[in-house]
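Progress against Task 2.4 (sequence-to-structure conversion) is shown through the following example record, which the project officer requested during the mid-term review.
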Amino acid sequence: MLESIRALFKGADLEAQPVDLNGIALGALDLLSGELKDHGVITHAELAPELPLVPGHGGQLQEVMLNLIRNAIDAMDSTTDRARVLRVTTEPDGREAIVVSVEDSGPGIDPQQLHSIFDAFVTTKPQGMGMGLAICRMIISRHEGQLAASADNKSGALFRFTLPIKSARGPRSLATSRIEKSEERNRPAQKQTPARSYGRPIRSHRRSRMHPVLLQKKVEEGAHLRQAQAVARG
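Structure tokens generated for the chain above:
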């Protein structure tokens, strides 16, 4: 048991990857299809189309689904007065999260046990160890989600876990950015060509320096012009 738990969380600190929860649900149902058939369980999968991906570890999330479905199968073993029905659903919870539900038609759970059903070594099975749901909650918590159960002790049990999607594209974006940075480093440097100027050149407003002789000539011409204007006015 300890070895299987250690293997489940091996590499848990690796970067999360985008996970398709519909694929996780269908994969778990496919793996347990023989067991469901042997126990006479009718399965209904109601999966919302085009769900966004969530960041996480596919192996761990599939283990949660497998555990919840196996618990439902075991719970319905004693059901003889009605059909044994398993309903698995996925649906968006607004724009922030996705909800996955596993519901059975078994006898349900004693409401007094709901507050402790996820504790370690607490079980309703005669030969259970009480570790399955505790591990499931740990996995969902590590994915920044929530796992809860509800039942009326009459018409079955409902387990629901919610996972956030706000950073679902994060790992993919990080990987893309790393590739882009690597390509940028390996790209040969391009020579920069001087910018071309268009239109008429801008004239400078600074005074140009003039030769002293020409400057004196300009001053004298100006004086003669002013003297001629004064005579004309007189």
